[in-house]
Amino acid sequence: MKIRDLEVQTYLFVLLGSTLFVDKSRDRLRPAINVFLKDQRRVAGYAWGAAALAYLYRQLGMATRVGSKSICGCLTLLQAWIYEYFPLFRPSQIL
């Protein structure tokens, strides 16, 4: 593996791990993502949006359990969905 390929893989790992696939620790990255980044020619072909949604749905399900005290996942995506479908919760816009 070339140094440049390793740099790109590391960058994508940190980017995806700290934005789309965030865990509750907020300071660790999930190593499972790294498996999908090894072949850089295939990275662009993956459905990252669908993967982020599936991960967020799973985390929402885990957050509804009795002992859960926090939530993780791409909460910006959840917030955008709430603003889209629940206009009452949108921030007020001053014109």
Poorly predicted regions: none
- The level of helicity is 40-55%
Category from helices, strands and their pairing? mainly alpha
Largest sheet: none
Question: What percent strand?
Answer: under 5%
What is the count of helical runs?
4
- Order of helices and strands, N to C? HHHH
Q: Roughly what is the average pLDDT, rounded to an integer?
A: 87
- By DSSP, the count of extended strands is 0
End-to-end separation in angstroms reads: 54 Å
Measured on Cα atoms, how large is the radius of gyration?
16 Å
Shape from CA axes?
globular
Organism: Linum tenue
Protein name: Aminotransferase-like plant mobile domain-containing protein
Pfam families: PMD (PF10536)
Domain Aminotransferase-like plant mobile: 5-91
Written account of the structure:
It is a single chain. With 95 residues, the protein is mostly helical. It has 4 helices and no strands. The chain is globular and about 50 Å long. 7% of the residues are buried.
Please write out the topology:
Elements: H1 3-19, H2 40-43, H3 48-63, H4 75-85
Provide a brief overview of the structure.
One of its GO terms (biological process) is meristem maintenance. The chain is built from 4 helices and no strands.
Descriptors:
95 residues, mainly alpha, 51% helix
